[in-house]
What does this fold into?
Amino acid sequence: MGELRERDWKQAREPDKRRGPDGVIYDASVVLKQRGWTMVAEYLSSQVGVITLLAYDDACMKKINADAGQAG
It folds into this structure.
C-alpha cells in the first residue's frame, strides 16, 4: 500500500476486511483513486493468498453506465 501512495494513489474509503474467529484477516479489499482512474485491490486468503488488482478509467465507466441507462 505504501508503494501505491508514493505513486499518488489515494484511498477512496476505508478498506473492507473480513476476520476469522482467531482475529486474522482472511479477505480484504481497498478502493484507490488517481487522476481519473479507480483501482480495486483484493486479498483473498481462500485462494492461497492471492492479491488481485482491477483498474479502470472513470470516464469510460461513466460513459458505459450512461449508455446502458439509455438503452435499458
Notes: Strands lie at 10-11, 16-19, 25-34, 37-44, 50-57. Residues 58-71 form the longest helix (14 residues).
